Predict the structure.
Amino acid sequence: MAFLELDVLNNAPKAIVGIDLGTTNSLAAIFREGRATVLRPEGHSGSVPSAIWFGTEGKVLVGREAREHAVAEPGRAIFSAKRFMGRGLADCGDDLRQVPFAAGENANGVVQFDVDGRPYTPQELSALILKKVQWVASQALGGAPVERAVITVPAYFDDTQRQATRDAARLADIEVVRIINEPTAASLAYGLDQRKEGTVAVYDLGGGTFDVSILSIEDGVFRVLSTSGDTHLGGDDLDRTLVELALTELGDALPAEAREDRAFLQAVRLASERCKHELSNRTSAELHLVSPEYDLNWRREITRAEFEERAAPLIERTLDACRQALSDAGLGADAIDEVVMVGGSTRVPAVRARVETFFGKRPHTELDPDQVVALGAAVQGHVLAGGTRDILLLDVTPLSLGIETMGGAVDKVIQRNSPVPSQATAGFTTYADNQTGIDFNIVQGERELAADCRSLGRFKLTGIPPMPAGMARIAVRFQIDADGILEVTAKEESTGAASSMEVQPMNGLTDDQVETMLQASYDNAKSDFDQRRVADLKVELGTMLHAVSTHLDKVRDDLDPESLADIEEAAAEAEAVRADAGGDVDVARAQAARDAFERATTPMAALLMDRVAKQALAGKALGDV
């Protein structure tokens, strides 16, 4: 007798998606039917541009719509929020020039941007992008909620930046099951775990960052031997070489104000990007700039050789990082068995050629370089959800972790490129007689002085018995979990007095701050929705008003006086609602104005349709119809 197995307790593990939160684009993937696949609703690529556009009436657009609005109004858009994750104002430098809003810091030292009086941290901006990715993924899954994810980060992201990524996901109501390095995820997508053994270099050149990782594979076990990279190097910089060429050659033909015009500069950047894309498939392409405002219609033929010459120094910078990674791993380029190319910028032929020459072997480019990271994250999500368990990832911490000692030096407890998860213990003692407490400053970096490293957090051990200096024995243990999150514990051996902390980065968000933001989003959900709805209705009313002003005169003589009066009355109310800038219009009034306008214009629409039909049938016999 056959039985139908039912999950009556609803204990089946929920799927864990893989999310690539990228600098330029973001997307989600899932493992099903034996393979990883990008989550894309019908008619959608699944890719979400990492762009956010803020309207003047509180409207916020994310993704493709934001990028389209940014062409006309670049002064309202933020791109590449990932560059600011886990950083303070002093860390951001020239990147701030790319953001059209004033930048500052909150009390925790987190950089934030003032958008019409409302401060946004990079975590909140990234949460908006993650919510959009979450929505797209949910649509592809038939409306099923996306609640758990493996999220990828650049291999060179430090603890602060990883914490910030986790905060962003939490704000988007996504449970982060694991944070893994992007190059490690890429190696999974290519199925390199099928190798019995070998050494792999993963070269990841995205829109705004570059990473390279050296991995070893032994019986399906991945171990990251070393990582290196540049968080300020990517496809945006390749585009900039063509932007600079255009602005230089235009010279005096371009007014000085155009060089400060954000909309014009955005148009130049997009034209340069298109030209770069064409040069990946053709030996020459046209860089074309059109600007009626500045009476400009400029064309310039760019050869691939010319572009490659300009891009060469940037490509060499990526190879410098490759040399550093090989040196850290104690290997030469000839020891690499496989090279994997990741990131949209690896489509540039010169990049592929130089990497092939450097490593002496043809790199893997079979998979879409824009999707490979998300696909690999989906594989890891499948493993964590209870799928196949013949894959093991051993990442490394990208920077050393230690403690500030007297005099401001750093005692490194966990060295750079140590395997993750891992732990290490170091011994310390008191500096002064009868000292009963010690303040610990946890730092991250490769410099010898704490002032030159990043402070991740501070905590204090008290309860040390009074004794001569140097007699106390304090063991300090550093423990990094699989996500790269650090916990530090200090214990005085004679009394057992102990203190510990999960390091909350100086440039991170506290649990209370995250909870406050979440609660604020819940508390303001209705008002936020209402504001968005009013803004949408105003846009719709504007479209309707334009249509009426364009076509009313054509049928005015055919309308009865009552219908004409209804249209004019409804139009006046629509104009009043649309013109309101003080927030006095609520959803009910805006919706009523829209509905009334639609009803009032129905007779006009009928007359216009009738006239179009008569014109279409004019001169035709009945049998022709």
About this structure: The longest helix spans residues 525-555. DSSP finds 15 helices and 28 strands in the chain. Residues 1-12 have pLDDT under 50 and may be disordered. The chain has four domains: 13-190+370-391, 235-311, 397-507, 524-617.
